[in-house]
Amino acid sequence: MEKTELMSMPFKIGVLQLSMEPLQETVSMAQACDVAGFDTFWLAEAYPWWRKHSMEARSSTAVTAIVARETKRITIGWGIISPYTRHPVQIAMEARVLQEAAGKDRFLLGLGASKIFMKEIGEGEKGKEVGPATVMRESIEIIEAMLAGNEVKYEGKAFQAFAPALKADTHVPRWRVPIYIGATGPVLQRLAGSHSDGLLTASITTPKFVQYSRKMMEEGARKSGKDPAKLDLGSVIVGSVGEDTKTAREGAREMAGMYLANKVQNIRGSADTLLECAGLSFDEIRPIAEAMEQGGRTAAARAVTDAVLQKVCPIAGTPSQCIERLEEYRASGCTHIMLELWGDDRLEQARLFGQKVLPHFNKK
Q1: For the domain 3-362, what is the CATH superfamily, name and number?
Q2: Residue 310 contacts by C-beta under 8 Å, 6 or more apart in sequence?
Q3: pTM of the complete model
């Protein structure tokens, strides 16, 4: 990977949340991020599993439409939704709403197979017939054709889609929506390089996993004749910020505990490289998973040792420590930080990040 390849992509810093919190809390956080100067606000779709821990799943497509109207500048992203939960034509219909709600260049569409959903609720008929790579590729082809206003006559292995072309006088946004693929395994990461505008990696992404992921994405891009320098690599990274090092890191500890207990184990198999890059073993995270089941996310946080937290490479601590870690991720090939802030007073964390961290990167 040559450094010059990354220079054409601006380094963006955004915030990602799960759609398991009350609507007004999510809107307030998005507004705080907008004011603070973050580039993006991503909403990942949570699933009903969270009811075990006193949280309710909400539709991220519905929530982001409201967020788009209640913010002014920040770009809104779906990070991610799954074509296992919605037909690609339905996804395109919901994307139209976001285009109109957000305005030009303020919406990013992230798609992923979402193995957590597939495990907790079931893959459905598509999952039995074809693999995730086919589902993702066909979804993108249908969504792009629908949003472009073309006549759609699509008969694939996973999906069928039929729609007449848009009339010239139809009142509808005509600009293109960037599409991202969320992926952990090499097959889908290469697909992100060949068929999308960028790759989104899962939580517990470390600088080493960024390097691995960029390699896979660029392989896919080159094979299809695309310029790797024009692809965005976004990484979901847990974190928290505060003036005191010890207390600031506790939010990241809790979020790391939740992900190590749930997401990583739910994507076992494709997560092997993710864990290997972090230097983590399943034996290390098993006690965290057990604590989560028995005592919830607070208990899981207590089970995350300092050694495990260090391996996760969170963007956490004082503003200067966060800047140092962000520079490490940028140097590894990440062009888009998707920071999952957690801990006490996240609105204040967003403000502090905007005041003492983001200016460092805005100067460059």
Answers
A1: Luciferase-like domain (3.20.20.30)
A2: none
A3: 0.94
